[in-house]
Amino acid sequence: MLNNELLIEISKQILSSIQTIEKRMKTIKASEDFLKNDRNLERLDSICMQLVALGESIKNLDKVTNKLLFKKYPEFEWKKAMGMRDVLSHHYFDLNSDIVFDVCINEIPKLKKIIKLILDSPNNPTIILP
After folding, report:
1. Does pTM surpass 0.90?
2. pLDDT truncated to tens, each residue of the chain (130 aa)?
3. Domain ranges of the chain
4. Helix 4-25 to helix 108-120 angle, to the nearest 10 degrees?
């Protein structure tokens, strides 16, 4: 059985991480910007930490929805988000700023849209699974 309260709480955590990433990306206009100075390298590090948190929260969403929720939103690559979390956590020195930039610019907005749908419609059976 799905715990809607837990689903909503995890979704709020994801939205919070997304908002933090968006805030930290405001001055980053290209992947090379991450490498320009120490401050931007710190931004890259902090964004990566948020991506790790997102990946972990996505794994938790998958668990609490019995692997059913993600099927409703195939436009987002859920497995890749979870995989990125694993790479950033376990192979940090393989970090690629181009990939991080691409994810932040192209994938985070897709995830935000889905999470907002979930949060804006907590009682809608087409959004939340029974």
Report:
1. no
2. 457 888 899 999 999 999 999 999 999 999 999 999 999 999 999 999 999 999 999 999 999 888 888 998 999 999 999 999 989 988 877 789 999 999 999 999 999 999 999 898 755 544 545 4
3. 4-120
4. 140
